[in-house]
Amino acid sequence: MIRVVLPEHLRRLAQVDGEVRLQLGGPVTQRSVLDAVEAAFPMLRGTIRDHGTQRRRSFVRFFGCGQDLSHESPDAPLPDAIAAGAEPFLVVGAMAGG
Amino acid sequence: MSEVRVLVGTRKGAFVLTSDAKRDRWDICGPHFAGWEIYHVKGSPVEPNRLYASQSSGWFGQVIQCSNDGGKTWEPVGNQFAYDGVPGTHQWYDGTQHPWEFKRVWHLEPSLTDAETVYAGVEDAALFRSADGGRTWHELPGLRAAKGHLWQPGAGGMCVHTVVEDPSDPERLFIAISAAGVFRTDDAGKTWRPVNSGLKSKYELPDPNAEVGHCVHRIAMHPSRPSVLFMQKHWDVMRSDDAGESWREVSGNLPTDFGFPIAVHAHEPETIYVVPIKSDSEHYPPEGKLRVYRSRTGGDEWEALTKGLPQRDCYVNVLRDAMAVDSLDSCGLYFGTTGGQVYASVDAGDTWAPIVRDLPAVLSVEVQTLS
Fold first, then answer.
1. Do B191 and B172 form a contact (C-beta atoms < 8 A)?
2. What is the largest CA-CA distance in chain A?
3. Which of B121, B136, B122, B118 is nearest to B77 (CA)?
4. Of the candidates A44, A84, B143, B165, which lies 20 to 30 Å from B20 by C-alpha distance?
5. Of A10, A19, A35, A30, which Cα lies nearest the Cα of A75?
6. Which segment of B10-24, B82-96, B97-111, B159-173 scores lowest on mean pLDDT?
7. How far apart are CA B192 and CA B187, in angstroms?
8. Which has the minimum average pLDDT: B85-94, B136-145, B167-176, B320-329?
9. With contacts defined as CB-CB under 8 Å, which chain B residues touch A7?
10. Is there a contact between B61 and A46 if contact means CB atoms under 8 Å apart?
11. What chain B residue is nearest to A52 in terms of C-alpha separation?
């Protein structure tokens, strides 16, 4: 079971509290995790990744196991601890204050 | 007993303000979509409890929300705005060509005849239509074929911010773009042409009379006279008596003819309202006095409306979609400011009082008169 933590604005949009838990069949990658998130919560399509290009939106970051995974390939395997559900995959609104 | 519902979009959420027909006690509900920019909220004239809202964020992009109970509950609907075919390019600030990129929905205009049909004016400038209550969106690409390669962004971006439907002709629509001008379709959006003859932009364009490129801020129409249009341009207040074929200036005795919104009285087609702003770089009222100006002659002759509005030290702006009227017998007029105040007048502008003073910066105000 994969654990995903969404930022507050997206939790409210998806009407979920706390972590999202998802069962994935195949390899655990950014793409497969986000595909599963969007399948479970279609209202999140376009809010994490661009509709057309499927690229991460500029002010969204992906963290996990104390690392910034934002710039990793979307098809690279995520750390074992995330794949095993021991650690969550964090979707984060980037710091953009002033 | 009639009721008035004021739909307010702000930088940090939407608010729904309701009152009975006396309009002296208001219930404030919100923020809805807290923390998101709400560029526009508007109700269907066919089913008034059907509302559409444009919700956007620099982090998470565009969401469209729909309500079927007058704003008590909301459901996210479709948010995919894909330009038709290869999007092409438009003119960029430096004169080069720049690819069309969707940024946000500025304006939602529900159809006058079908609650499921709604238009979305977007940045980068294009018009989309949904015929299924906002679930799917399709561009009307003929608009960008009307010299779109010559359009360029203003300081606020390049957006379709105004959509006006002709109640006497379902095939006719007007839209306005900053900074391109007014465009009209007579075949339900298949083909479009610029209707900017008479506009003059001597400080903004190398050819002051150019066919496209004018920074139109807002256009307004009274439903009983759909060939008469009023315009607040970047500078100049204008009117057309022939559905946009020609325009003439009616700024008259205004203290400044720069501004953003323009509105028409619900029952008097020649009574119009603007909020003069000092200049294109000083976006606040002249002399720190917040004044609505009213013309009862369709322009040229204007009177200042000040009772109840701050007459000193006021440096707010009133944005293009932030003024609207109700249709009660004594016409109500409403506007919101970038300082977070929403002011109402229940006597066509003679006197004013704030409904609420401390909202986030107001982006849009729409009014529904419910029976």
1. no
2. 42
3. B136
4. B165
5. A30
6. B82-96
7. 8
8. B85-94
9. 59-60
10. yes
11. B82
Q: Quote the minimal CA–CA distance from A36 to chain B in Å.
A: 18
Q: Which residue has the tokens 């940090």?
A: B12
Helices (H), chain A: 8-14, 30-40, 80-83
Closest by CA position to A57, among listed A24, A88, A83, A91:
A91
What is the Cα–Cα distance from B196 to B183, expressed in whole angstroms? Answer: 8
* Interchain contact A76–B (C-beta under 8 A): no
Residue B231's pLDDT is 98
| Cα B201 from Cα B61, distance rounded (Å) | 33
| CA angle in degrees (0–180, nearest 5) for B114-B118-B120 | 165
Cβ–Cβ contacts within 10 Å for residue A94, how many? Answer: 14
**How far apart are the CA of B344 and the nearest CA of chain A, in angstroms?**
32
Token look-up 């439903």 returns B223
In this prediction, residue A98 carries a pLDDT of: 59
The average pLDDT across A76-93 equals: 97
- Chain A nearest-CA distance from B76, in A, is 6
DSSP single-letter state for residue B145: T
Tokens 């910066």 belong to residue? B361
Pair B150, B212: CB distance under 8 Å:
yes
Q: Is the CB of residue A52 less than 8 Å away from at least one CB of chain B?
A: yes
Contact B8, B358 (CB under 8 A): no
Query: Is the preceding omega at residue B353 within 30 degrees of 0, hence cis?
Result: no
Coil vs helix vs strand at A63:
strand
Mean pLDDT value across residues B326-351: 98
Can you list the domains of chain B with their CATH numbers?
46-52+59-328 (2.130.10.10)
Domains with residue ranges and CATH for chain A: 2-93 (3.10.20.30)
* Interface residues from chain B to A (CB-CB < 8 Å): 34-36, 57-63, 76, 79-80, 82
A7 interface with B at CB cutoff 8 Å: yes
Contacts of B34 in chain A (CB under 8 A): 12
The residue with tokens 């409210």 is: A12
